[in-house]
Here is the input.
Amino acid sequence: MTSLEQKSTTEEIRARFDRDVERFSRLDTGQETVMDASVMLQILRELGRAWLRPGARLLDLGCGAGNFTVALVQEVNPLECTLVDLSAPMIARAQAGISAANRGEVR
Here is the structure.
C-alpha cells in the first residue's frame, strides 16, 4: 500500500493532465488507461440510449477531454452538460468537442 506522502499532489495531477490534453482528446485511443476502451465507450452509448432522453442534464465529474460525454451526445441530443475537471486545458478541449456535437448547453 502506498503511503499518503508518496501519492501525487493535486497540483502534480493537474500539471500532468494539462500536458496530456492531446493524447486524451482522441476518442479512439484517449481512454487507453481503461482496459477495452472501445468496448467501454460502446457500453456507455448503449446506456445513454436506454436511460437518457433529449434535454436531460448530465454532470461529468473528471471529464478530462470529454470523450465519454461526446459519446453520449452522439446517441442522445441535446443534453445539458456540466463539466468538472482539475485541468483547465482539459475542460476547454471537452467544451469545444462536446459543443460541436451537442445542440444543448455546455458549461
Remarks:
- DSSP finds five helices and two strands in the chain.
